[in-house]
Amino acid sequence: LKNGKLIVDDQQRGNKWNFDNITVGLRRPSSGGVALTIGEEGTHAWSLRVAVGAPANGVRSVDIRADKVSTSNIRLALRLKDRTYSADLLLSGELKGELGRDGLPTYFRGKVTSGAGTIIDSDTPDYPMAIDSAEAEVEWDAGRRVLLAPFKIISGANRITLLAHLEPPNDNVTDWQLGFSGGTIVLAGFD
After folding, report:
1. Please, is 102 exposed, middle or buried when counting C-beta atoms within 10 Å of its C-beta (0-12, 13-18, 19+)?
2. Taking the model in full, what pTM does it have?
3. pLDDT at position 81, please?
4. Has residue 165 got a pLDDT over 70?
């Protein structure tokens, strides 16, 4: 599909979105695997590319590249609604790694950044939190089976740096677990 129109009509949740100038490509490289590209051209251009390689020595390569992908579009794709917080940010970055036979990464690393936008608490939507920029480095720790992501958020003179860690389900815990540790929070004072 090239420069087409995509209408998402979620009748179950009562939402409808229109995307103009959408380009979607799905191909199978001659070396095996699959590559999906999707994006929108025009004044609000964005793109997302996901490539998964053919199995080699028990692993598959994974390459994800994003350029100005809206968090609103991500929420739509994941069918996330009625959450306490929502974000209006454009994400860019690249993540590379390998997936093992069990579906978990053998290695995975990359960086995701965002420019200016807002985070909104649905309890107080009239007071959005302005974000000037954000960035996260992502790395899979295969020994501990945890995804580590030190991140930084800048809003005016305010700064937050923390370490996020995401653990997949295991023999003892059936849910994904997200935690935060270390870092600093610097809040600007009044003049």
Report:
1. exposed
2. 0.83
3. 65
4. yes
Nearest one of 102, 190, 114, 107 to 152, comparing CA atoms:
114
148: tokens are 């580590």
Which two structure tokens, joined as six digits, stand for 162? 């923390």
Amino acid (one-letter) located at 7: I
Give the residue-averaged pLDDT of 97-118. 92
**120, 130 Cβ separation under 8 angstroms:** no
* DSSP calls for the chain: --SEEEEEEETTTTEEEEEEEEEEEEE--TTSSEEEEEEE-STT-EEEEEEEPPPBTTBEEEEEEEEEEEHHHHHHHTT--S-SEEEE-EEEEEEEEEE-TTSSEEEEEEEEEE-SEEEEETTSTTS-EEESEEEEEEEEETTTTEEEEEEEEEETTEEEEEEEEEE---SS--S-EEEEEEEEEE-----
Question: What's the chain's average pLDDT?
Answer: 88
Q: Are the beta carbons of 129 and 118 closer than 8 angstroms? A: yes
Q: 61 or 84: whose pLDDT is higher?
A: 61
* Closest listed residue to residue 185, CA positions, set 164, 162, 163: 162
Question: Is the confidence at residue 21, as pLDDT, over 70?
Answer: yes
